[in-house]
Sequence to fold (93 residues):
Amino acid sequence: MIIGLRTVEIFIPLSQSLKEKRMVLRRIKDRVKSKLNVSYAEIDHQDKWQRTCLSFVTVANTRLDVDKRLEKVMEIILSDDRVQILEVESDYL
Fold:
């Protein structure tokens, strides 16, 4: 069993309020939830309008399966032109 964790720091340049930021994040989270077997949480910068840090976690039998799911998460994030990725970190257990 492999546990994969991917932490993504995101910049939302056009956001002018926490409400706008949450709308962008809700779309990303809803798409991840509907397409993948991945858990997620906003772990930092909750009070900032234009920044956030999201963590995604998944469990699978092989590292290849974990990597595939986490790469699909990245594709979902990158498909939203309102966000810019600042930093990505991955860990495995």
